[in-house]
Fold:
Amino acid sequence: MENITLVAFLLLVFCFTNTYYAPNSYAQPVDCLASDREALIDFKDGLDDPANQLSSWIDRKCCQWHGIRCDNRTGAVVAIDLPGSYNRYGLLNPSGVVRPSLMKLKSLRHLDLSLNSFNGIPIPAFLGSLENLQYLNLSYAGFRGKIPRNFGNLSHLKSLDISSEVLSLHAETLKWVTGLVSLEHLALRGVDLSMVGTDWVSAINTLPSLVELHLSDCSLQGHIPILPSLNFTSLAVMDLRSNDIVSKIPDWLVNITSLHHIDISHNHMYGSIPLGFGEMPNLLSLKLLDNENLTANCSQLFRGRWEKTQVLNLAANQIYGKLPSSFGNLTSLVHLDLSDNHIEGELPVSIGKLCNLNFFRLSHNKITGRLPEYLEGIDNGHSRKPFPYLKTFDLSFNQLRVKSQSG
Ligand SMILES: *[C@@H]1O[C@H](CO)[C@@H](O)[C@H](O)[C@H]1NC(C)=O
Ligand SMILES: *[C@@H]1O[C@H](CO)[C@@H](O)[C@H](O)[C@H]1NC(C)=O
Ligand SMILES: *[C@@H]1O[C@H](CO)[C@@H](O)[C@H](O)[C@H]1NC(C)=O
Ligand SMILES: *[C@@H]1O[C@H](CO)[C@@H](O)[C@H](O)[C@H]1NC(C)=O
Ligand SMILES: *[C@@H]1O[C@H](CO)[C@@H](O)[C@H](O)[C@H]1NC(C)=O
Ligand SMILES: *[C@@H]1O[C@H](CO)[C@@H](O)[C@H](O)[C@H]1NC(C)=O
Ligand SMILES: *[C@@H]1O[C@H](CO)[C@@H](O)[C@H](O)[C@H]1NC(C)=O
Ligand SMILES: *[C@@H]1O[C@H](CO)[C@@H](O)[C@H](O)[C@H]1NC(C)=O
Structure:
């Protein structure tokens, strides 16, 4: 009798532990691969770790170490997630060297060493042989010198971020990116690309899955070439802010219907702003500020639909003409900056339909006439109908008359 109860009890315990612990032990196997553990220990030995962030990297269960993830079934290390943090002077982030022992991690798919403090060492070229990588983030990690060309071997890579402090890294060509056939996200902010010429456009046009392109502060030069055909069927973000591009805005840009965000501010673009921007079906944000010689006739530009556009910053250009009454159709606008242009004539009454505006700046133009009554008395922070969300409002340096002044 007692025996039977004991058996039943043990069975119960067994069932409990099994159902309760099974998912857990499945998620993290008892142990990690011994060879992967050895590789990680060697990698750690190359690092200086003043804050002792890797203090958990000692026992046998390497899958449970800080920043490590393993494959459920095999126990192979699939991810090293060790971003540094923005702490005081970054002094406490890991530095040192990145040892090639990482190459022994045959299943590694995810490597994040961003924001660490590798004091001016070059990016190790062997990272280009980690052929299973899908995610590589080396941004703002203190690397200097040339981006290794063999990164083009990373054909499974979906996301590559090598953004750096301005001009501490450089590349002589971007032809190698054509090898990154799975790439969805490319960020090379601050990398010196002054030597790549205009090839970057055709190189990037070979990436059919690209969704985000971040090439701000890269010293890109020259013009943006004509493309015979477009592969950018998924591109949503194009950030070319703060370069030295001297070019017309290419006609093909407005053909990329998937684009949400375009920023070509602070370059040397010239010629007219294509009217096609106003017909882009998904455009949420267009920033072209500070291009000196970029022109547009307001009457024509704002005849477009601008259906979803919330952010429009065309400040400090050569925009001229009158704001048409169809301007009031841009009802999605939240942030509007047309300051420092040559806009003239009276403000259309329809501007009162732009009820979502929270930032409204038309200063430094040649706008004339009377300030519409509903705008009188609006001051920063004191919004009233019809702009319930308005925070910033600036019509200074125009030729407007205010009722109280005109007597
Ligand atoms: C790991 O196991 C969990 C269940 O415990 C499962 O939800 C998850 O999809 C598995 N992950 C992989 C990569 O197999
Ligand atoms: C790379 O890391 C930085 C800092 O940790 C992060 O802000 C950024 O979003 C990451 N980039 C990508 C593409 O995930
Ligand atoms: C990786 O790239 C380099 C240089 O681009 C090339 O010589 C090498 O053959 C490539 N390796 C593999 C395994 O594809
Ligand atoms: C478009 O992408 C495909 C696949 O990567 C490539 O073979 C083709 O050459 C690309 N077309 C252009 C015009 O770059
Ligand atoms: C862009 O669209 C216009 C009009 O639809 C078309 O004529 C032109 O060939 C397109 N350009 C590219 C590069 O696809
Ligand atoms: C703008 O155009 C003027 C006159 O054509 C030219 O002198 C000037 O260099 C141009 N500025 C830029 C930044 O392209
Ligand atoms: C702007 O375009 C409108 C409509 O096409 C035209 O009537 C007007 O003359 C143009 N303004 C200037 C200054 O060229
Ligand atoms: C835009 O505004 C004009 C003038 O206010 C109006 O006649 C026209 O129907 C509007 N167009 C659209 C597409 O809403």
